[in-house]
Specification:
Layout lengths: L1 H16 L8 H4 L21 E3 L2 H4 L7 H8 L3 E4 L6 E4 L8 E5 L2 E2 L20 E6 L13 E6 L7 E11 L3 E11 L3 E12 L4 E3 L5 E4 L5 E5 L2 E3 L5 E13 L4 E15 L13 E19 L3 E21 L5 E24 L3 E22 L5 E24 L2 E12 L2 E2 L3 E11 L4 E12 L3 H5 L11 E16 L3 E22 L5 E23 L4 E11 L2 E3 L21 E11 L2 E10 L2 E2 L11 E2 L2 E13 L3 E10 L18 E10 L6
Parallel strand pairs: 4-7
Antiparallel strand pairs: 1-6, 2-3, 4-5, 6-7, 8-9, 8-37, 9-10, 10-15, 11-14, 12-13, 15-16, 16-17, 17-18, 18-19, 19-20, 20-21, 21-22, 22-23, 22-24, 24-25, 25-26, 26-27, 27-28, 28-29, 28-30, 29-31, 31-32, 32-35, 33-34, 35-36, 36-37
């Protein structure tokens, strides 16, 4: 990759000779703010839906960001992160990570073994469209989203001829990030290749509040104590992502698509703040190779649309834990291997009757084949045994919906979904959505929805050895929400929009892994959970002058998530308490101000305290304190006849906050990143 940067720099002077003068010097004249038109009607597909759509600027802010970072600073859901390039999951509306369904171009990404998705493994630069479907709204997309769904997709590049973009990033802790995109497009074809490579020893310094060092006087009496400064140990990573896309448009309403995404990851698992051993005595490592591929066909008519997709996912994961047995020899303590193959198919259709009715149908199937083994279990005879499971499960999901808008100010939608996991079917899953414009002045719109939902146990819940419980019941629950939204503005001057909603959900037979008398954990249907709260968001964009532009986005959520089940024993103190690792309050704010080709970005997020135990004990390790996070970025765009160049500098954790997202997992203090991007113009006329 570094050689490629040198080659590009050498070619640039020669390419410049072939370019024509740029008659539109936007770097000097500035960029006009995009005009915003506000309409009172929501699209038919979005009747009553609570949806958060992410701006392209947030997704493409810098190549070092994963979708975990985007969600942290641009939504009100809690992202539970173990640090960069380590596991990052979400708590959506007070639920667990497995209650959030994630799709990419329609295909589910949730791991069938664990039920959750690691958002640190999704580069934001690979995503062109991203949105959150809150609570009930997820039923329109998929089942099982008791908290909601995250919808990710890619789009054709819309390029004309050949295009190249290269970005080099350099950050603290010897972190390197590189991004390359090659595109080609004409009237029929759109072809794109994207690659991201990131590597770092990730050995940042932090103050360890889980340890204390003594201060002695000359007589070896203890006269004080302090928290030592340590380095993050065994936290290096090397991630490579390659995304290949090709789209063919026949010009007669048909489009064919191919998407292929390859991942190769090698990550160490950092040592805990409570570990006293030497880092060279351990090797705690996770490796992954994943391929995701989708073939698609879309046909668009005047009043109808049909589409089909076929896909395949192959994932190989390895977890190795080695330690020095005392003679310099590293011996395997754990040697886990998992292989997942998923076959995917989907067919969907839409049909409009005039401008008042929209009918949709969707049928999707996922066939999972899983092989999970621990190859380092020692039997009583001293030999190694392979322990694990090999299982397959088909998941079928079908949905029908009818949407009716009898007037410009009122709409109603009804949805019926049916799901099958293995040989077990859910009852019908109904959902009802209503919205109406209360006032055309300010486009004040009221929305409400109600749905039932189910989530089946994961394959690990059922079959993991030791501890799997094949007698688990599926989780079930009801969710409803209601809210108001508004949008106002003056074209070319400002736009202001916002929304606030109340949500409430009841989840029965919540699955929880609990310790057993046999010395291992096992899952049980143990809890009834009542999650409720408020979600609010607002956006303001202002053209201060023809050259100065300001935008501000904010999100806030209040999310009590209470265990209302029966005590499991006399010592159980979890009933009536907040679920672990779910903050009651979370908020974020993003402000951007630009002048001509300069822009300044400020990002801020806040999480209230999180309990680490279901009893909500206020012990030293029973809770994690609240924290604030601030990042700033300064960017300069340069335009030449031969290329566009961007220079960007970022300061993360601006105020050097000492914080933890997960107990005993260190997080970095203030750190820096610098990016340079080059987009040659390849002889195009401007």
């Amino acid at each position: 990759m570094k050689k490629l940067l040198i080659i590009v720099c050498l070619l640039v002077p020669y390419l410049a000779l072939a370019q024509e003068d740029d008659t539109k010097d936007w770097a000097t004249k500035g960029i006009r703010i995009r005009e915003v038109s506000v309409f009172g009607n929501r699209p038919m597909k979005e009747i009553g839906a609570q949806e958060t759509k992410f701006d392209t600027i947030a997704l493409k802010e810098n190549i070092a960001l994963s979708m975990a970072d985007v969600l942290t600073f641009n939504s009100a859901i809690f992202v539970k992160s173990y640090g960069r390039a380590t596991l990052s999951t979400v708590a959506f509306r007070g639920t667990s990570p497995s209650h959030t369904q994630v799709s990419w171009n329609g295909m589910k990404l949730n791991n069938p073994m664990l039920g959750m998705t690691d958002f640190s493994m999704i580069p934001s630069y690979f995503i062109d469209d991203a949105s959150l479907l809150h609570g009930t709204s997820s039923v329109n997309e998929t089942g099982g989203g008791m908290g909601g769904a995250v919808k990710l997709s890619t789009k054709p590049a819309q390029s004309d001829g050949f295009g190249v973009q290269y970005i080099q990033g350099l950050g603290s802790f010897r972190t390197f990030d590189e991004f390359l995109r090659l595109t080609y497009g004409d009237e029929s074809w759109q072809i794109s290749t994207r690659a991201v490579f990131s590597t770092s020893p990730n050995d940042f310094e932090y103050r360890n509040h889980d340890k204390k060092e003594n201060i002695y006087d000359e007589d070896m009496n203890i006269i004080g104590q302090y928290y030592p400064t340590e380095r993050n140990r065994s936290g290096s990573f090397r991630d490579f992502h390659l995304l290949q896309e090709a789209y063919y448009n026949t010009g007669r309403g048909d489009r064919f698509g191919l998407n292929g995404w390859y991942i190769n990851s090698n990550r160490e698992l950092p040592m805990l703040t409570t570990d006293y051993g030497n880092a060279t005595d351990f090797d705690n490592r996770q490796r992954e190779e994943t391929f995701r591929g989708i073939l698609s066909w879309d046909h668009l008519g005047e009043q109808w649309k049909v589409a089909t997709k076929a896909g395949y996912i192959h994932t190989w994961m390895a977890y190795d834990y080695k330690r020095d047995v005392g003679n310099g020899t590293m011996a395997h303590m754990t040697r886990s291997r998992s292989k997942i193959d998923t076959f995917y198919g989907q067919a969907e259709g839409e049909y409009y009757i005039g401008s008042d009715w929209l009918f949709t149908a969707n049928l999707a199937v996922h066939q999972h084949i899983v092989q999970s083994e621990d190859k380092n279990i020692i039997r009583q005879d001293g030999n190694k045994a392979i322990v694990g499971y090999r299982k397959g499960r088909a998941e079928l999901s079908g949905v029908l919906s009818a949407k009716w808008r009898p007037t410009d100010r009122f709409g109603i939608s009804a949805t019926l979904r049916e799901e099958m996991y293995g040989t077990e079917w859910t009852p019908l899953i109904p959902a009802l959505f209503i919205d109406g414009v209360l006032s055309e002045r300010g486009n004040i719109t009221a929305k409400a929805s109600l749905s039932r939902n189910y989530r089946f146990p994961t394959l690990n819940d059922l079959y993991f050895l030791p501890g799997g419980n094949p007698d688990l019941k599926k989780e079930s629950g009801w969710t409803y929400d209601a809210g108001l939204s508004f949008a106002a503005g003056r074209e070319g001057s400002y736009s202001l929009s916002g929304s606030a909603s109340w949500f409430e959900s009841y989840i029965h037979d919540w699955i929880l892994w609990l310790p057993t008398v046999k010395g291992f954990f096992s899952p049980k249907n143990i809890k009834d959970v009542h999650a409720y709260g408020i979600e609010a968001k607002a956006n303001l964009s202002v053209a201060l002058t023809p050259e100065w532009h300001l935008s501000i986005d904010g999100n806030y959520s209040w999310t009590p998530s209470i265990n209302e089940g029966e005590p499991t024993s006399e010592a159980d103190r979890s009933v009536g308490k907040q679920l672990p690792y779910i903050p009651r309050h979370s908020a974020n704010l993003t402000g951007r101000i630009s002048w001509r080709s300069w822009s300044f970005l400020y990002k801020w997020c806040y999480y209230s305290e999180r309990f680490t135990m279901s009893s909500n004990d206020f012990t030293l390790t029973g809770k994690l304190p609240k924290y604030f996070m601030s990042n700033i970025t300064l960017e300069k765009a340069l335009s030449f006849s031969w290329a566009d160049i961007s220079l960007k500098g970022t300061i993360n954790n601006l105020f050097d906050e000492e914080y933890l997202s997960v107990l005993s997992r260190p997080m970095p203090g203030i750190n820096f990143e610098f990016f340079i991007g080059i987009t040659p113009k390849w002889g195009k006329k401007k």
